[in-house]
Amino acid sequence: MNKFLWDLTYFQQRAILAPTNEVVDSINKELLESQPGEEKVYFSSDSLCQSEEESELNMELFPPDVLNNLRLSGLPNHKLVLKLGAPVMLLRNIDQANGLCNGTCLQVTKLGKVVIEAKIITGTNIGYHTLISRLKKTPSDKRILVKISRRQFPFHCVLL
Fold first, then answer.
1. 3-state secondary structure at position 117
2. What angle do CA 84, 88, 89 make, to 5 degrees?
3. H or E stretch covering 9
4. Which end of the chain is more exposed for a tag (fewer CB within 10 A), N or C?
């Protein structure tokens, strides 16, 4: 994989189907570790939404470590590990006119503290470079008793 890292068609033409997100995360972790370069880790900022009553009971039921461990569809993980050249998938629509839609794959070209630069590798704007910052997302999952807010880069690593 290393010799094809910067070949756009390499990632465009490959996919592995996995039964669960846990299996995907496990495979992606191993593949990312085998990729050259230093890892950069980004942690989310999670909180209860201000629209919710921040009662003592809610704070006890949903302390930061519980919020950080929530894994919901469409919500970026609390811990995002990236390397230069890693392919990522957008988890939300950012700028549809410029091809930055939910499901668009990009390749990381620069890892900053507050923004990540990436190149679009799927869709209509292949080769276009963009800057992505952390975004706040509030999932609408009915299984969670309170509304939470997660501030994180809207990516999921997709080395598969």
1. strand
2. 165
3. helix 8-12
4. N
| CA angle in degrees (0–180, nearest 5) for 18-20-21 | 100
Structure pTM? 0.77
Nearest to 138 by CA among 125, 154, 123, 127: 154
Whole-angstrom CA distances from 124 to 96, 119, 149 are: 10, 12, 31
Residue 68: in which H helix or E strand, if any? Answer: helix 64-68
Please count the other Cβ atoms lying within 10 Å of the Cβ belonging to residue 104: 24
Residues 6+ apart with CB under 8 A from 17: none
Closest CA to 116 of 135, 93, 130, 132: 132
User: Hey, what are 76's tokens?
Assistant: 């970026």
- Residue closest to 91 by CA, chosen among 24, 22, 155, 12: 155
By the 10 Å C-beta count (0-12 exposed, 13-18 middle, 19+ buried), 112 is classed as: exposed
pLDDT tens across the length of the chain (160 residues): 555 555 656 666 666 666 777 777 787 777 777 788 899 999 998 888 765 455 655 666 777 788 888 887 768 889 999 999 888 989 899 999 898 999 899 999 999 999 999 999 988 899 999 999 999 988 777 777 777 888 999 988 776 5
